[in-house]
Amino acid sequence: MRRLNVWLESSPTPIGVLVASDSGTTDFVYTAAWLMTRENHPLSLSLPLEPTPHGDVLTRAFFDNLLQENRQFDQVRAREGLAQNDVVGLLAIVGADCAGAVSVLPEDHPPIKRPGDLANDYDELSDAEFRDMVMRLASGKPLAYEMRDPSPVAGFRDKISLAALPNGRFGLPKPNSGAPTTHILKIPDADHRHEARDEEFVTLLAHQCGLPVGTCIADQVEGQDILLIQRFDRIVEGDAVTRIHQEDFAQAAGLPAALKYERSGIAGRRFDAATIGRILATTAQPARARALFLRLTLFNLLVGNNDNHAKNHGLFHLPGDAPMLTPFYDLVPVQIASGFREDLAYNIGKARFAHEVDAADLLHFTGEIGISATGAASILAKEAHNVVTAIEALSSGFEQAMGALDRQIGAVAELLNDTLALGIDLRDRDAPATSGGGWQLS
Question: From 3.40.50.1000, 3.40.718.10, 3.30.200.120, 1.20.1250.20, which CATH number describes the 116-235 domain?
């Protein structure tokens, strides 16, 4: 057997043990000390606090989602000669640096993640070093050794985690400090160079529509588009930085990253409205969480963000409390760009595509996420009216570069207005033409 200790930044001792047997199965069990601590919480909704081991399927799903999905990680896996499904073997190599507050370490290894002090625990990056880092990420070149990512983030896009220092510059945690980062630097791929600009714009738009979102800023470095994202899983008080434990909806549902879209799974094991409803029901304020998720779903339909898969939604786990929804993130209007699939990340009723959605689908979805039948119609009408009215007013002032987004919004706003009889006076727009599917003109 191979055994690794699982730590959280806030825990004085390991919270659990990850075990790989010779037969290839993987288990996770909480330590007695963590179970007895009054300030404990589960590592995941899919791994509830109990003294018996959690089996292979749920354990593998949670820890698989801690691993990155980009070429830097593929290089590590190839170098070490490890199989993609060898979760414990992979975490034995990269578990000290896995995403978030979690670290996975050999049994004889001391804890590695701890709160940081912005004044003392970070090495400042010069302008030249920052530019070099951006260009290396953009070109696929390996980072300089001293710039190895100290806090990697799961996901496909090329990213690196940084800390914003009190003097306005960015830095990296000093080696072996275990200090957290505060921001994520994301590089759009070359085929979608305006993705950073679009994500910044749509994230601000979501905030203006009353959705809780993170903060991100688009910029350029030597002509290369970048996006700086402030991490919402951090608490910064003065110079002190601490991590908050969070998990994505794939982990909460016990699904591996490969099943983050509904189309990838099967009944009973997929990211669908019923699964979303079960997750929302566990939160500290279920009614509020359901209404927010319904509003987000309508907003994503309007802006063409149908890449809102299970790993693009999250939960906070706080000591002694029920889970809470994280701010919404990765809000990208993919339908105004070419090369993206047009089917929805999760079905709305029977509809697999935005242009198929009707009132019955929306009402069915509203019920599936847990809104009671007696109030479903009125809550759906209220949320749809509010989000369409808000986004319609805001879109009239869009800059010219956002013309495609405005046309996308107009097409879906008209659909929602008609199918739900909202009675909103919408502006006339040209019909959108995308890469194909429901909205393209013949």
Answer: 3.30.200.120
